[in-house]
């Protein structure tokens, strides 16, 4: 069983969180464990929204993301599981892999969308994480 699981959370799809948490609880079993929840804000990657995100706006955005993660923990996470939130800015796959190393995660548990034509050319986040992560990666297919 696993003792430290990283769950990347897409706040645009909060409805997926209960499936992720249920799977994490199965992977943890009866172990005392920690679940690290990671939200990666990708809004500045293409710089299109850059003029609209000054430091104050970004701080508010980060605060909102933290509050939303805390709400998900309070409503879905079992009491015996320790959850810690992390917010990063940039490319999701890079930060997921980096955070797993920083937190010494022994598993990453994440959702994946059904592949579309674009993913055949560019790949998707889950695929990149599976290829490059140093720990086990469990992918739950979106329905």
Helix/strand order: EHEHEHEHHE
The span between the termini is 26 Å
Number of helices: 5
Which secondary-structure class do the elements indicate?
alpha/beta
**Low-pLDDT residue spans:** 117-122
Highest CATH level, the class: Alpha Beta
CATH homologous superfamily title: HUPs
The strands making up the biggest β-sheet line up spatially as: 3-2-1-4-5
Global morphology: globular
**CATH fold-type name:** Rossmann fold
Second-tier CATH architecture:
3-Layer(aba) Sandwich
- In terms of DSSP E residues, the strand content is 15-25%
Total domains: 1
Please state the average pLDDT score.
86
What's the count of strands?
Answer: 5
Radius of gyration: 15 Å
Bin the helical content.
Answer: 40-55%
Summarize the structure.
With 143 residues, the protein is α/β, with parallel strands linked by helices. The chain is built from five helices and five strands.
Question: How does this structure look, described?
Answer:
- With 143 residues, the protein is of the alpha/beta class.
- It has a single domain (4-141), classed as HUPs (Rossmann fold), CATH 3.40.50.620.
- Helix content is 41%, strand content 23%.
- It has 5 helices and 5 strands.
- The chain has helices at residues 17-28, 55-76, 92-102, 117-122, 125-132; strands at residues 4-8, 34-41, 82-89, 107-112, 136-141.
- It has a 5-stranded parallel beta sheet, sandwiched between helices.
- The protein starts with a strand and ends with a strand.
- Belongs to the universal stress protein A family.
- This is Universal stress protein F.
- It comes from Neptunomonas qingdaonensis.
- Residues 1-141 form the UspA domain.
- It holds the Pfam family Usp.
